[in-house]
Specification:
Elements (H helix, E strand, L loop, with lengths): L16 H11 L7 H14 L3 E5 L2 H11 L7 E5 L4 H9 L3 E5 L10 H6 L5 E4 L11 H10 L3 E5 L7 E2 L2 E2 L6 E5 L12 E5 L2 H11 L22 H12 L1 H19 L5 E3 L13 E4 L4 H13 L5 E2 L21 H9 E3 L8 H18 L2
Parallel strand pairs: 2-3, 2-4, 4-5, 5-8
Antiparallel strand pairs: 1-9, 6-7, 8-9, 10-11, 11-13, 12-13
Helix pairs in contact: 1-8, 2-8, 3-4, 3-7, 9-12, 10-12
Bound molecules: pyridoxal-5'-phosphate.
The site of pyridoxal-5'-phosphate (PLP) has 14 residues, from helix 3 and helix 4.
């Protein structure tokens, strides 16, 4: 038994974070004006080879900003996966629009193109494919359906910075892509988010809406109801330092993923997300325990806790939440999201985790599973 608990996630600050934050503090520019915001935005856009990056205070409002700038309004329908973090679908409700929950695929756990196609109506205006746990969605199929029905595509890349689809970074395929820099993400700014787009008009609208709807050429003159969704210079200072280390941060995650796979190679009950040959960013190592019930999965998590190992359940399907019971949101069944959620568990994944930690976590998991198997 370890003395110290192993956390599910931990940020890593190995570069210029302190230096840049100190510089921001000493400059006096601590709110949402300051050089780090522009440099961080430019560097993030450049990393993706995209024209515009618009920094926000967190990833949830990045999604809302993207939807608002795309003109999503009351009664519009937006397709979202049933298995995702709640912010994906709540952001649609912030626009008084209707998030139409869509089942996921059993292999990659991402939004199902066929269920998506089935749920399109004349009111459908957009789709938010989520690269769940860093695993790229089937972009070709989704883009094909979206283009055929004239839908706006907003990629939710909150968990997927660094993932690649056909060799290109995710976040470069849709009309807009949204990222999160929460403390457990690939790079962090504490709280933080970003919208990416190649569309000049959408970028301009997002910049205006982010800043209360203020006219860009006339200070304190407002053209619409906007929001205060700005990122601070201090957040951006941390973000820039983190982005400078992206290659190291990503390769460390790849190593952790490979090390886990190695440990579980001969264990028959573990199932992983299929990547279809694409590059998962390995944000958090997540697996299914084959044929387990909720109770068995929760018992495994409790045993891991006794061994001082922090784990987390896969997201609960959104259609199960009390405030998503309206048939406007949840049409038809969701057999796939339900069973993935029931069997799913995430293991500690953060840069700095050592190979012997991974062995200890994996052996503890296999022991716990065996004890919970009748
Ligand atoms: C898929 C997904 N979308 C959106 C968000 C929202 O990001 P934030 O926590 O920065 O608001 C998250 C955050 O964890 C997420 O996992």
């Amino acid at each position: 038994m370890r003395d110290k608990p192993i956390n599910i996630a931990q940020p890593t600050f190995l570069g210029n974070e302190k230096k840049y934050v100190t510089d921001a503090l000493e400059s006096g520019w601590i709110s949402s004006i300051g050089k780090y915001i522009e440099i961080f935005e430019k560097s993030f856009a450049q990393y993706h080879g995209v024209k515009h990056a618009i920094a926000t205070h967190n990833g949830t409002i990045a999604l809302h900003l993207a939807l608002a700038a795309s003109g999503i309004k009351e009664e519009d329908e937006v397709l979202v996966p049933d298995l995702t973090f709640i912010a994906t679908s709540n952001s649609v409700r912030y626009c008084n629009a209707i998030p139409v929950l869509t089942d996921v695929e059993t292999d990659d756990w991402n939004i199902s193109p066929s269920d998506m196609a089935n749920k399109i109506t004349p009111k459908t205006k957009a789709v938010i494919p989520v690269h769940l746990y860093g695993n790229p969605v089937r972009l070709r199929e989704i883009l094909g359906i979206a283009h055929a029905h004239n839908l706006i595509v907003i990629e939710d890349c909150a968990e997927a910075l660094g993932a690649k689809y056909e060799g290109k970074p995710v976040g470069t395929f849709g009309d807009i892509a949204c990222f999160s820099f929460f403390g457990n993400k690939v790079i962090t700014t504490g709280e933080g988010g970003m919208c990416l787009t190649n569309n000049d008009d959408l970028a301009e609208r997002m910049r205006i809406l982010r800043d209360h709807g203020m006219n860009r050429n006339k200070k304190y003159w407002y053209d619409c109801v906007g929001f205060n969704y700005r990122m601070t210079n201090m957040q951006a200072a941390v973000g820039l330092a983190q982005l400078e280390q992206i290659d190291h941060l990503l390769s460390a995650r790849d190593h952790i993923y490979d090390a886990y796979c190695d440990c579980f190679r001969k264990f028959p009950l573990i199932r992983l997300q299929s990547t279809h040959g694409q590059q998962n960013t390995n944000w958090i190592f997540t697996l299914r325990i084959h044929d387990f019930t909720f109770d068995q999965r929760d018992s495994v998590m409790a045993m891991m806790k006794q061994k001082k190992i922090d784990t987390r359940p896969v997201f609960y399907p959104i259609h199960q939440m009390s405030f998503y019971q309206d048939p406007a949101f949840a049409r038809g069944g969701f057999p796939n999201s339900a069973f993935i959620s029931r069997e799913g568990i995430s293991l500690p994944t953060w840069v700095g985790l050592q190979d012997d930690d991974i062995r200890y976590i994996s052996e503890s998991l296999m022991e716990s599973i065996q004890q919970c198997t009748p």
